[in-house]
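hi! just following up on the protien thing from before. the input was this:
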Amino acid sequence: MKGYWIILGSEVRDPQAQQEYGRLWKPIAEKYAATLKVLDAGALQESNQSSRVLAVEFASYADAKACYDDPAYAQARAFALRAASRELIIIEADLA
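and the predicted 3d structure came back as:
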């Protein structure tokens, strides 16, 4: 089964931090063969703070966990959290 990060995020409040996150994320995504899917915000049926929905697909749940725990991602994550508020869950599934 594949692994996914499901991310619910607010609007970006710091575009420079978001840009730096993207720069740092690119080699991490390549290392873990992760693919980003920006989902239609209309998928949010009930939300108090989120306005963006993203899914990051990995070949396996183990890869999704390893990526999150990677020290390089810890550095990138600091910029993501500066850029916007978010919630991230890691799941194992076969999503379409």
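The mean pLDDT is 93.
Strands lie at 2-9, 35-39, 52-58, 86-93.
cheers
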